[in-house]
Structure formats: C-alpha cells, structure tokens
Amino acid sequence: MKRILLLLILHTITLHSRAQVDFEPITSMLDQVEPDSIKRHIAFLADDRMRGRLPGTPEFQIAIDYVIKHYKMFGMKPGGE
Questions:
Q1: pLDDT (tens digit, 9 = 90+) per residue, 40-62?
Q2: If I label 79, which of 16, 64, 67, 71 is the partner at 20 to 30 A Cα–Cα?
Q3: Residue 45: closest CA among 79, 78, 75, 68
C-alpha cells in the first residue's frame, strides 16, 4: 500500500516537475501510513454484512457514518455544504 501511495505521489510530482518541491512533508506523511489500518477499513466497508452499501439502505448509512467518523478523527472538514 505504501508503494502505491508513493507511486501516486511521485507521479503527481513529476507532472509538476518545474515547481520546487519539499519532500520532507511527503516523507513524514508516508511514515504515518499503516497498511494494517487501511486493510481494516477496507475489510469493514467491503464486508458482506454491508450488503453492497446501496443508496437508501441502512448499510449505506452505516458506511457513510463510518467514513465521516474517521474523517473527523483525522481532522478533515467538509469542503462544501
């Protein structure tokens, strides 16, 4: 998982190769990535008990609430209404 994230970051950086890039913040963020944590999130959201998370179903709301809860834990804020 770290490799995929690193490749995406490096690809983005190469698209903007003319700009000066400070790699320290990127490196420190990559050090915080926990593959097992990502696997647990995927396992929860992809579990058969979520029944596909179709819009309008209780499982869809459970998935939304789960994601919102974790976004808030990470300090993320809504970008719109």
A1: 999 999 998 888 888 899 999 99
A2: 16
A3: 68
